[in-house]
Amino acid sequence: MAKVEGKKRIVVKVGTSTLTHQTGKTNIARVAKLVSVLSDLKNAGNEIVLVSSGAVGIGAAKLGLSAKPKTTRGLQASAAVGQCELMFLYDKMFSEYGVIVSQLLFTADTLSNELEKGHLLDTFNQLLDYGALPIVNENDSVYVEELLNGDNDCLSATVASLIDADLLIMLTDTDGLYDDNPSKNENAKLISYVEEITPELFEIAGDAGEKGTGGFTTKIKAAKIATDSGIPVIIMNGEKPTSIYKVLEGQSIGTYFSAKGE
Fold first, then answer.
1. E runs forming strands in the chain
2. Which has the closest alpha carbon to 61: 26, 12, 88?
3. Would strands 133-138 and 193-194 be described as parallel, antiparallel, or unpaired?
4. Which residues does 238 contact at the CB level (< 8 Å), separation at least 6?
5. Residue 96 has pLDDT above 90, yes or no
6. b/e string for 34-68 if b means 16 or more Cβ within 10 A?
């Protein structure tokens, strides 16, 4: 884990299960702690990009819905409402620490178009040069792949690759990747280090279970995207955002995926 020390350009992905209570409403205390940690890391000289899910759940709660919609258009509408609420919350909380945030919404089509991809990279780099903190989400109102299948996991890895990040941290609702589903097998063991992502690992991920939209399979797919680009990945529990400090100090937290060639 010592290889994490000294990383400066860091992408942090936070999932819906970390940002909300079981009721679907915002976990204000946890969001506030995450914001304070990321602001502090910026003060320490790091460049931080936040890839944030949560718009659908927060939007559904604000609309007074008892659960997330089951239709695609219902999910998209909830995302449209929730994105406003989410950015309002982030802007308000980060501003308390003097951190300027920006919103970047885009689709996979943007990343497959070299011209648009170049413009997007320019925007990221300029925002970071200005000292702003980019907050990223998929444009769920017009593109639904991550909305339905990925909970922004692969998006975060693609962003990390695009901006040549030093590290991708994925916050989720378990301590990392287990060799079996810990909610069903009390003897399941945490896999603390992954040197290479193999087909067998995808099989383990399919059984390891996790509450988010994508589950652990999409997290392994995301880890492969990033590690193939030379970016190490850590999947860890987002319940205590202060654990990110321990990660950057080189302590073994969660599951560490070694970058190719590391």
1. 9-14, 47-52, 101-106, 133-138, 167-172, 193-194, 233-237, 255-257
2. 26
3. unpaired
4. 14, 15, 17, 18, 30, 34, 171, 172, 173
5. yes
6. bbbbbbebbeeebbbbbbbbbbbbbbbbbeeeeeb
Q: Which two tokens stand for residue 173?
A: 């609702």
Q: Are strands 133-138 and 101-106 parallel, antiparallel or unpaired?
A: parallel
Closest CA to 106 of 186, 66, 162, 62: 162
Give φ, ψ of 213 to 5 degrees.
-55, -45
pLDDT band at 215 (very low <50, low <70, confident <90, very high): low
Helices 72-95/28-43 angle, 10° precision: 50
For position 210, what pLDDT does the model report?
A: 46
Q: Where are the extended beta strands (E) located within 76-227? A: 101-106, 133-138, 167-172, 193-194
pLDDT at 149 over 70: no
What separation in angstroms does the CA of 243 have from each of 132, 233, 250? 23, 15, 11
Q: What is the mean pLDDT of the chain?
A: 89
- Strand, helix or coil at 194? strand
Q: At what angle do helices 153-162 and 114-130 cross, to 10 degrees?
A: 80
Burial class (CB in 10 A: 0-12, 13-18, 19+), 128: middle
Q: Which residue has the higher pLDDT, 127 or 21?
A: 127
Average pLDDT over residues 54-62: 89
The span from the CA of 143 to the CA of 140, in Å, is 5
Q: Check residue 257 and give its pLDDT.
A: 97
- Tell me: pLDDT of 70 over 60: yes
- pTM for the whole thing? 0.92
